[in-house]
Amino acid sequence: MYKVSDYVVKVNLHPIGYTQSKNELDLYNAMMEQGLYDLFARTYYVDEYISIQRYYEPLEMKYNQSFEIDLSREEKLIPNLYEEVLTLLDQEFNSFDLKDSSNYGLNNEGKLILIDYGMNKKLYEEQWVPSAENGILPQIDYDFCTVCESKKELRMYGENDRDKRCYSCGKE
Q1: Quick one: which of 79, 90, 107, 157 could link to 161 by a disulfide (CB 3.0–4.6 Å)?
Q2: What is the DSSP code (8-state) at residue 120?
Q3: In angstroms, rounded to a whole number, what is the distance separating the alpha carbons of residues 1 and 84?
Q4: Of 36, 17, 7, the residue nearest 116 (C-alpha)
Q5: Amino acid 72: pLDDT
Q6: How many angstroms separate the Cα of 63 from the Cα of each of 76, 86, 142?
Q7: Could you tell me the pTM of the whole model?
């Protein structure tokens, strides 16, 4: 991803990324029709190589890792209609992984806004999981980096990946 002024350009490194970006555009348009678009980063453009979306400052990690959004702990961050929108996304769009903090940014009022919302259960189960199990896409493991020795999220590519460096120490 690249920040350009008030926008983010997401580069689709894999066809799954393109599908996610298309899903984000479709979801944003559907939410616009229902008047719920304020909870989503606007997606302006999608093709097989990139997508362009409104930029929002991402949530800070806690102890160098993402965390699950907890309605009681993050109460001050929760926008109006948040629970209703999550229920709608789950029931009507089969959305997946919407409580992970890495999928959110903060709007001008300091409230959560979805910035990464294109994954659905079918895409996850049929494409992402097999690609991750085959070492094509990374799975996240929480362990000690062998370089900086900090305990944080590590990208692991399949069961045989023994490279336990974090992203900051050079593993992509």
Answers
A1: 157
A2: B
A3: 29
A4: 17
A5: 87
A6: 20, 26, 11
A7: 0.80
How deeply is 103 buried, as exposed, middle or buried, from its count of CB atoms within 10 A (0-12, 13-18, 19+)? buried
Three-class secondary structure of residue 152 per DSSP: strand
Q: How many residues appear in the chain? A: 172
Q: Six-digit token pair at 146? A: 């062998």
Question: Quick one: pLDDT at residue 89?
Answer: 94
The Cα–Cα gap between 73 and 4 comes to: 32
CA dist 23 and 116 (Å) reads 10
Q: Give the residue, 115 or 140, on which the prediction is more confident.
A: 115
Distance, in Å, from the CA atom of 164 to the CA atom of 169, rounded to the nearest integer, reads 10
Task: Report yes or no: 21 and 10 within 8 Å, Cβ to Cβ.
Answer: yes
Q: Which residue, chain included where needed, has tokens 């789950």? A: 90
